[in-house]
């Protein structure tokens, strides 16, 4: 049940990113601001984060099943990357709180 909720939330995040990719250029056009975006930006960022965190989870599970068959450096690398992304998010949250 918990895993299903997590997947549903990820799908909702991705759909939100796709909506932003279409709504922002349309709204900008309505106020007279035009820019050319040849690819989806928000959905790519959200999708990358989802894939990255899932890759970390899969590698951790492989390692737990059989530590000798999976290179530990891959888990360390992915975990360090995930922690850095999370730290960036925390710093951004602190900056927003300081502005208010």
Task: Explain the overall architecture.
- The chain is an all-alpha fold.
- Helix content is 81%, strand content 0%.
- It is elongated, with a radius of gyration of 18 Å.
Question: Nearest-angstrom radius of gyration?
Answer: 18 Å
What is the helix content? Answer: over 70%
Instruction: Report on the biggest sheet.
Output: none
| Principal-axis shape | elongated
Tell me how many strands there are. Answer: 0
DSSP strand (E) fraction?
A: under 5%
Name the average pLDDT: 82
Residue runs with pLDDT of under 50 for 5 or more positions:
none
Quickly list its features.
elongated; single chain; 100 residues; 81% helix; mainly alpha
């Amino acid at each position: 049940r918990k895993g299903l909720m997590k997947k549903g939330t990820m799908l909702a995040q991705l759909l939100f990113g796709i909506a932003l990719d279409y709504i922002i250029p349309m709204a900008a056009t309505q106020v007279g601001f035009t820019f050319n975006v040849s690819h989806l930006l928000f959905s790519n960022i959200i999708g990358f984060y989802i894939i990255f965190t899932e890759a970390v989870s899969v590698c951790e599970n492989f390692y737990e099943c059989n530590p000798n068959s999976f290179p530990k450096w891959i888990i360390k690398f992915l975990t360090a990357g995930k922690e850095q992304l999370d730290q960036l998010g925390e710093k951004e949250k602190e900056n927003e709180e300081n502005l208010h």
